[in-house]
Amino acid sequence: MTVKIFDTPDVQDFLKTVAGFDQAGGDERAKQIMHRLLSDLYKLIDDFDVTPEEYWSAVSLLNALGHETQFGLLSPGLGFDHYLDMRQDAADAEARRTGGTPRTIEGPLYVAGAPEAEGFARMDDGSDPDAEVMWLTGQVRDVDGTPIAGAKVEVWHCDSKGGYSFFDPTQSEYNLRRTIFTNGEGRYRARSIIPSGYGVPEGAPTDQVLKALGRHGERPAHIHYFVSAPGHQHLTTQINLAGDKYTWDDFAFATREELVVEGKRIEDAAEADRRGLEGVFTEVVFDVELAKTEVAELQTRHARPRAKEDVEDIGSQLAATAKV
Ligand code: DHB
Ligand code: FE
């Protein structure tokens, strides 16, 4: 079949009806966006001569993605998360908000409400005796190099098998998730375990999509951060550990040159003792620079449904966003 009907008045009128243009109710922006989205998809069906079999298998795949709550997993794989970052970077550049540690994607696996600590926290629950001990530390500074005391540093990462607590029911609550407030010198310190890389579940709908593109669903070992302080721009970022097979081949497109950190293996017993550790450990240092801003909306993370996020928080964040 090689019919082309997209540009006919019948189809164009039909699209307007489907998008509710002739209805008084509903939301104007929703109508505009749906009209554009459907137009692009109808045109695609025409241009690629999409068969009914192909169309219905796509519907089935979307159902499977939703059933397994995997849209949040597929989203970074299709580059949407990184694209939103690129847009945010461009908006910062246009507003001359320069400097500071680069942002990169949040990913779908943050959980709100992790235990809070001042200056130091142990993040692992000690249940993984074979895991390599990680000493994670850094200083939070403003763009002039002044340390920021009391900055809020939220850190989360996966275990040595690639699982995140909460999403992996075998782990204890908030394992490898902590909120640490920096000390008087702007420093945070954590004892944890070196995370492994992460892979999307084998055979899952996300994996099927990536395989159809000839791609893999692997991420390098990485550690997520939210960093915030009054008067400064909220930072969502992560570090990728150097030397991982996927450091420069991350399916989620989160790697940025400034965010690749080399862990340093330390075998000196005196160094371990100084940190209250025993035996060999790996030190990972990540200093963070926050840009200044007086705009309240830029000082908090953007609203998004997140596990255990207070619904009232989301409501008030959305209300704040709507006012800008
Ligand atoms: C995904 C998983 C992550 O741990 C992450 O940081 C980003 C994306 C994912 O499964 O899509
Ligand atoms: Fe992650």
Commentary on this structure:
This protein has 324 residues and is an alpha/beta fold. It has two domains: 1-50, no CATH class; 73-323, Aromatic compound dioxygenase (Protocatechuate 3,4-Dioxygenase, subunit A, Sandwich), CATH 2.60.130.10. Helices cover 29% and strands 20% of the residues. The chain has eight helices and 14 strands. The protein has helices at 9-18, 28-47, 52-67, 71-77, 80-94, 205-212, 269-274, 311-323; strands at 116-118, 120-122, 133-142, 152-156, 177-181, 187-193, 198-199, 218-219, 222-228, 235-241, 260-261, 264-266, 281-285, 288-290. The strands form three sheets. Strands 1-5-4-9-10-11 form a six-stranded mixed beta sheet, with no helix packed on it. Strands 2, 3, 6, 12, 13 and 14 form a six-stranded mixed beta sheet that branches. Strands 7-8 form a two-stranded antiparallel sheet. Strand 9 (222-228) and strand 10 form a beta hairpin. Helix 4 runs parallel beside helix 6. The protein is globular, with a radius of gyration of 23 Å. Residues 320-324 have low confidence and may be disordered. The structure holds 3,4-dihydroxybenzoic acid and fe (iii) ion.
In brief:
The protein has eight helices and 14 strands. By secondary structure, the protein is of the alpha/beta class. The protein folds into two domains: 1-50, no CATH class; 73-323, Protocatechuate 3,4-Dioxygenase, subunit A, CATH 2.60.130.10.
